[in-house]
Predict the structure.
Amino acid sequence: MSTNASHERRREGTAAADTDGPESTPAIAVEGLTKVYGDGEDAVRAVDAVDLTIERGTTVGILGPNGAGKTTTIKSLLGLVLPDAGTVEIAGIDAHEQPRAVYRHVGAMLEGARNVYWKLTVRENLEFFAALGGQSVAGTRDRHDRLLDAFDLAGKADQPVNGLSRGQKQKVSLACTLARGTDVVFLDEPTLGLDVEASLELRRELRRLADEEDITIVLSSHDMDVVEDICDRVVILSEGSVIADDSVDDLVQVFETQAYRVTVEGTVSGSTRSRLHREFDAGDWTETGDRTGFDVTLTDGDALYDVLDVLRDAGLSLVDIDGHDPDLEEVFLEVTGRADGGDES
């Protein structure tokens, strides 16, 4: 599922760039970022002393349940929300003291396809957003042609955006975000509304931008497959605080407790079920015909033999054992304490 080869290339590139000089300045540096809405007992601490450093040319996923502080954090990084405490630097520039200077480095897609002008053509939108950054039509023509080709929009370049499909509008929105050639890009649900093929194309293009053009991408998405495919690193927020910050691969390895689906012949008695639940957290029991299935999650590979001993003591015959490795979605649920299916509101 994860593009490990791309991630490895990115890590090597980051290490190579980690030298003294301008290139070693982080793309994003956040210290003590705090934002509180309301006063007194009604106050809500949306962001609570967040520290974050993102190196140039990396792709970072910002995850968290609803209300975790993702939107406030991202808008604070963009200078759209004034924090109560803390500092934000983009390319070494204070985002709140010098917002115009920061704007030259940053592009953002926060409202899906709603941040483009539907009465303008696709190319006119690209030219308009580039012009906002002081760039000429002639100077951006080649870049815009590459973007149109990359997002399969060349044939629609002279059509008004209003007549395009939802997925095409989403592509136009992303292309406009990249139209100025900024070195830091913020994306909120970039694959929303795209079909599977278009989503895969977009993922490949985002990886290419990070790997080949050294663009820093900060991505927020509820699609764990997208995050796992694109991102080098994941930051998970909960109740305004960072509760996990690591590479995708390392986060998955931390929670690499092996999960098994066990199937036996016959019915498992209540006492045996209780023992399996108590000792191995067995659950999700199902009975199909003369067979019973259940899940166990084990942190020690040898513990599987202990499960088999319990089954043997109960006179149960093993039919099948299926194992699977955790993915990023399981890690997210575990880290945020929502593995039991709790409400995310």
Observations:
- Residues 4-252 form a domain with the Rossmann fold fold (CATH 3.40.50.300).
